[in-house]
Specification:
The chain is an alpha/beta fold. The protein is 46% helix and 18% strand. The mean pLDDT is 97.
Length: 278
């Protein structure tokens, strides 16, 4: 993840600075030193401190960035997250880029933690998963934030896990042909995960050798029946589609092994964090 973060930091700084930070260069002497604090303005879970540190290190190695808490730690309004000291120009130029990363990733970790806590309160053993619904280029960082929030990662991309979805099924000629084709192509003994939308599709996928079913957008009654089918067949079950904090408890009562939630990354509001010169 470090290499990805460093690349993204360089890209973000190039986007923001362009040919130069004209305001800072004009108003702030190159020799001026400064101290600053990064402070949380609302409660949440902090994520992205190493990325924020990399922002300032990329601008000026003389800037000292000292985290006051660990990544993944809870904060309340007023908590000092990090302290900085060094060349004032570098601190000002890197301020917005560092905060953009921190606020976005902390927002993901915070929202994820809310889902995890709600699931625990329901005494469910299900594991909350993220999805591939991420901002292009930021997936590794966003999935890192999900882990800090207490959930787990689904596949990182198209390369590390099979998942037959509705369009695969349509083009392959059905659920069974799609499963058979993948098993043949990769010489698999264990079948892939398959997205299903009803009980008939669930039965077909199980019969064809699927190892896990993604139970997509099912109402609670059908979802419970589908989970029972999976349990009898010793196939893992994953509830997905339209899941939010309002219906999470009901979904958890289905007994699904996993609950995947796209909102963790595509709808997390930024956590309010600022940087102030002291």
């Amino acid at each position: 993840m470090r290499q990805v973060a460093e690349f993204l930091v360089r890209l973000a700084l190039a986007e923001d600075i362009g040919p130069g930070d004209i305001t800072t260069k004009g108003a702030i002497p190159a020799s001026l030193k400064a101290r600053a604090v990064i402070r949380a303005k609302e409660a949440g879970i902090i994520a992205g401190l190493p990325v924020a540190k990399a922002v300032f290190a990329s601008l000026d190695k003389k800037i000292r960035f000292v985290p006051k808490i660990k990544d993944g730690a809870p904060v309340k309004p007023g908590t000092i997250v990090a302290e900085l000291s060094g060349p004032a120009r570098g601190i000002l130029t890197g301020e917005r880029t560092a905060l953009n990363f921190l606020q976005h990733l902390s927002g993901i970790a915070t929202l994820t933690n809310r889902y995890v806590k709600k699931l625990r309160s329901a005494k469910s053993r299900a594991i909350i998963l993220d999805t591939r619904k991420t901002i292009p280029g930021l997936r590794q960082l966003e999935k890192y934030a999900v882990r800090l929030g207490g959930a787990a990662n689904h596949r990182l991309g198209l390369h590390d896990a099979f998942l037959i979805k509705d369009n695969h099924i349509k083009l392959a000629g059905g659920i069974t042909p799609a499963i058979q084709a993948i098993k043949k192509e990769y010489r698999l003994k264990k079948g892939p995960e398959v997205e299903v939308k009803n009980l008939a599709e669930a039965r077909e996928a199980i019969a064809a050798g699927a190892s896990r079913l993604l139970l997509d957008n099912m109402d609670i009654k059908i979802l419970r029946q589908a989970v029972k089918l999976c349990r009898r067949a010793k196939v893992a079950s994953e509830a997905s589609g339209g899941i939010n904090l309002g219906n999470l408890r009901a979904v958890a009562t289905s007994g699904a092994d996993y609950i995947s939630i796209g909102a963790l990354t595509h709808s997390a509001p930024a956590l309010d964090i600022n940087l102030k010169i002291i």
